[in-house]
Amino acid sequence: MNPLAISSHSTERKSNRWRSSHGFTLVEVLIAVVLTLIIILAMVRLFKSTGDSISLGRAKMDMHNQIRVVTETLRRDLQNATHLPNPRPGTSEGYFEIVEGPEFDGEHATGDVSFLGDHDDMLAMTVKSNGEPFRGRYNGTWVESYQAEVVWWVRHDDVDGDPEASYDESLRLYRRVMLIRPDLAVLATNSTDIISFHRDNDISARVGTTVINPGDPPVPAIIANTLQDLADRKNRFAHDYTLFPHVMDESSALLTPMLGDFKGQDLMLDNCVAFDVKVFDPTAEVFVPSRVGLEIGQVVDWDDPGFGSVITNASTSPGSQPNAYPQNGAYVNLGYDPADATGLSNARWFAGLPYNNNYSFGLPDPWNGSRVFCSWFEGYESDGDDQDGNLLLDQGVDGIDNNNDGVIDDNLERETRPPYAYPVRSLEVRVRMIEKKSNLVLQQTVRESFVPN
């Protein structure tokens, strides 16, 4: 056998070995591509899940930080209020006021905007600072004071012309601080334009009169308030100073955001969906359900979803099922009614107008059903104005038995009444916000007791 001869079998084996080590079949390539795509897709999903988790965590952290600043500021205002929410006569160190709007939490229990709550309440008070002074603008410079008039409210940016808030519309929580600086005295003469003044200055001020030169007649002026001045409702921020009872109006031009160089300085929460102010009623029952859909032992409080449907059912009324109402005492809206599913009628302790139809000569109540708590001003009884419109001045202190009941200057002869005659024992404010990118909703509650220790 010729050693130089090449075997055909050897050549075929080498050729096969060369093909197998230098190429892949189409099936092999397709399998490799599919496996690679699966691995890439898994990695993309992993990265997306990790990114979403990080974004969600960051959103939660940002929300907690935002709402913490709001609630801590609100709690500090309540703790440092110069006037406890008590309409007791004789007190004149500032004021405390709650305005209950027509909205309530239970109204938004279902539907596309179920995250919404009571967002049209207002809270106003005079506050002192125990730490750093309040700072604000006056005549283009910054000034300071340890006392201020503070107002909280929510502004609805109505886009579609429907007064109801929707998901695409913004609700913003604002806090306006007006420094109490009576030493500034007359702030502007020959002017009653308090709106323009407050647009450019952070000083608590009222419309009054002043004499520029001795012997000259008084002229209209804008004058800096004292704490005592603010006991009178007509001197307060965003109140109607022209007509008794000097209501605080949510539509007031003063309750609009700052603009221009000062835009955002009064903004507390950009994505607020509830600012719900409630007062404590020691007579309000809380309900523990025993029906399908609610856990037995779960407390259903006033304005909670589902409360109205059970309170109006005779089979679950307090008289027929006393064990379902284990205790009294709950935070309620001003003007709530335990016999009404909506809680908006006038009846009971913090409901309606306690002095309605009790005016000395049967005159209509000036509050016209407004749900307001206000620390009151005794000066109305001796200011020479005819607040009740009966052509008699200050009949409650004139030494005459004007209503012929045998008692001189009794309570029924007074010209004015506070809208609620009872002190507020405790206050609750629920602040709720939403982060619309993740649809996270967060709520925190501030409670402050005003009962002396």
Radius of gyration over alpha carbons?
34 Å
pLDDT < 50 runs, ≥5 residues: 310-315, 341-366
Portion of residues within helices = 10-25%
Task: Kindly state the number of beta strands.
Answer: 15
| Tally of separate domains | 2
Proportion in β-strands: 15-25%
The geometry reads as elongated
- Alpha-carbon distance between the termini? 121 Å
Strand order across the largest sheet? 10-6-5-2-1-13
Return the average pLDDT rounded to an integer.
78
Oligomeric organization of the protein chains: single chain
What structural class is derived from the secondary structure elements? Answer: alpha+beta
Q: Count the helices. How many?
A: 4
Order of helices and strands: HHEEEEEEEHEEEEHEEEE
Largest sheet: 6 strands, antiparallel
Please provide a written account of the structure:
- The chain has 453 residues and is α+β, with helices and mostly antiparallel strands.
- The chain has two domains: 52-376 and 416-449, no CATH class; 377-415, no CATH class.
- Helices cover 18% and strands 23% of the residues.
- The protein has helices spanning 8-21, 26-79, 194-200, 307-311, and strands at residues 96-99, 122-128, 134-138, 141-145, 147-157, 170-179, 186-189, 205-210, 219-224, 267-269, 272-286, 327-332, 372-374, 426-435, 440-449.
- It has a six-stranded antiparallel beta sheet, with helices on one face.
- Mean pLDDT is 78; it is low at 310-315 and 341-366.
